[in-house]
């Protein structure tokens, strides 16, 4: 049974941002032999990705390096243009770049980058960064009060102590809080957080994740949390999407995906994550054989892109790309793009 792509509870009115069939291929410079054969090659960074961000919910996008997560964030933030597919905010598709509707979209969908040091200008103070963002987006606001609000909201208090500081005078966690405050200055409805804690010391990561959770609850933000760390997604996200080689291979509510992972790749990710409860050397029998590397995105494998690494690969997996299939058949919304969940295929394989 193909899983429904319609949003489940909470209702469709809670949908803030939606992407359908989102695809980004980066052209690769042609080699001399490509000129002869007229081959046009491309890195298929994102292929046919669908996602929904809902008000007051965190959706985690998990996958290993190079799986296309950051490209999805840059597409949603309109920093790069998609090759195909559509992105809509409250049901309105973004069609043109420029103009009032596009500017409103860019205000309402804000991106927080992985490296707060690189995203803040070292020659400007916190006051400058935040004032500039406020002036661009809300010319009529009382700036002093707004600065105070923003810094309090990201728990940099007392605000007066931080306004005159330069990025190098702040800790990594404080810098990321300033970057988050700058995103909030626009008054967004969706926040795209691209590995927001991966450059921070382990000891302060939890504080920043708790801040994002607090913002989700207080401001009803729709948050996309991009990470390679499935353990943090388990802790933090309402919904989880798992990306492999440019495609989303599993999705559902956070608990289902992380506690009852269905796709062999998700199981591999979980088995590879450090887990203090697992005895060293002990491996899930499902994942023990799944070694190997992710495939080339210029020439990805036919069929399921995970099949060369999959311990359960069947003949069909090598030729046909699996659709989203319901994992439990009870309408929970937990799905996997894996032929293991196609009843006729499994029956055939068993005979
Ligand atoms: N501008 C670009 N031109 C060509 N290829 C690109 C470009 N940007 C990204 N890619 C390629 O697209 C693929 C996906 O990259 P992306 O950065 O989205 O992955 P990621 O999952 O975010 O990885 P990481 O966690 O390492 O950032 C990679 O193979 C990358 O080399």
TrEMBL record:
CDD domains: ABC_NikE_OppD_transporters. One of its GO terms (molecular function) is ATP binding. Residues 30-270 form the ABC transporter domain. Residues 276-302 are annotated as: Disordered. It holds the Pfam family ABC_tran. The keyword ATP-binding applies. Keywords: ATP-binding, Nucleotide-binding, Transport. InterPro entries: AAA+_ATPase, ABC_transp_ATP-bind, ABC_transporter-like_ATP-bd, ABC_transporter-like_CS, Oligopep_ABC_C, P-loop_NTPase. It comes from the Bacteria. This is ABC transporter ATP-binding protein. It comes from Actinophytocola gossypii. The lineage of its organism: Bacteria, Bacillati, Actinomycetota, Actinomycetes, Pseudonocardiales.
């Amino acid at each position: 049974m193909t899983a429904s792509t319609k949003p489940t509870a909470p209702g469709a009115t809670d949908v803030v941002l939606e992407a359908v069939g989102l695809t980004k291929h980066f052209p690769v410079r042609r080699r001399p032999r490509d000129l002869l054969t007229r081959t046009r090659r491309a890195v298929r960074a994102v292929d046919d990705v669908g996602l929904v961000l809902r008000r007051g919910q965190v959706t985690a996008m998990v996958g290993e390096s190079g799986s296309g997560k950051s490209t999805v964030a840059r597409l949603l933030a309109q920093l790069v243009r998609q090759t195909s597919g559509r992105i809509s905010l409250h049901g309105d598709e973004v069609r043109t770049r420029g103009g009032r509707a596009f500017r409103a979209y860019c205000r309402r969908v804000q991106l927080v980058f992985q490296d707060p040091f690189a995203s803040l200008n070292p020659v400007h103070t916190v006051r400058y960064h935040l004032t500039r963002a406020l002036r661009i987006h809300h010319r009529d606001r009382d700036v002093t009060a707004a600065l105070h609000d923003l810094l309090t909201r990201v728990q940099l208090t007392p605000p007066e102590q931080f306004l005159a500081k330069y990025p190098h005078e702040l800790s990594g966690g404080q810098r990321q809080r300033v970057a988050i405050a700058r995103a909030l200055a626009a008054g967004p409805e969706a926040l795209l957080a691209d590995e927001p804690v991966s450059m921070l010391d382990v000891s302060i990561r939890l504080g920043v994740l708790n801040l994002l959770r607090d913002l989700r609850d207080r401001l009803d933000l729709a948050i996309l949390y991009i990470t390679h760390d499935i353990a943090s997604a388990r802790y933090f996200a309402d919904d989880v999407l798992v990306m492999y080689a440019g495609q989303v291979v599993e999705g559902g509510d956070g608990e289902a995906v992380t506690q009852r992972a269905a796709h062999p790749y998700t199981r591999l990710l979980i088995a590879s994550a450090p887990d203090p409860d697992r005895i060293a050397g002990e491996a899930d029998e499902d994942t023990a054989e799944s070694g190997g590397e992710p495939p080339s995105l210029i020439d990805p494998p036919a069929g399921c892109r995970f099949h060369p690494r999959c311990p359960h690969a069947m003949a069909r997996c090598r030729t046909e790309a699996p659709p989203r299939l319901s994992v439990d058949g009870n309408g929970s919304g937990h799905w996997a793009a894996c032929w293991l969940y196609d009843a006729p295929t499994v029956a055939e394989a068993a005979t």
